[in-house]
Amino acid sequence: MTQLKDWLDAILAASSFDEWLVVYLKATWLSQWVVNSRWVWPISETLHFIGLALLIGIIAPLDVRLMGFMRNVPLAALRRLVPWAVAGFVINLLTGLLFFVGTPEQYIDNESWWLKVLFLVIAGVNMLLFETTQRTRALAMEAGAPAPAAFKVIGGVSLVSWLMVLYWGRMLPFAVGASF
Asked: What confidence score (pLDDT) does residue 7 get?
């Protein structure tokens, strides 16, 4: 009962939403499990890396093809690998949430984290635009066909966005005030 009272007092004393969120998340069983378990963090890091390899390893060649390179590769062949990229994204989403819930104070005020999130959103919006406006056209494109301008823009935005997600993720420990 004392723990609950202390937790409620800390939440009520928080001066900002950021502070409140950090206090709330750190008090959850999930945060305690991530921080206090010997293996949760290293296993999550390993899975996060595998997820990145799946995601970037599949999306990058697809983006390069959309940009007009690798003309001899049909887009439909690359698209068949997209479910593996989605699996990589889901792995990264779940492990990323574990990292955030486990140590929210390392992320909530970290500029690198917010930039990573920004580029994740840009990549997501770009993907939705592609899927809703260009997908049918892309699947019909045969090997050797030049990429339309819209494909080049979408591929370029996607590639840069994912590279920025990687970059800002790597910069997390080096941001001003980072507590990694």
From this structure: 57
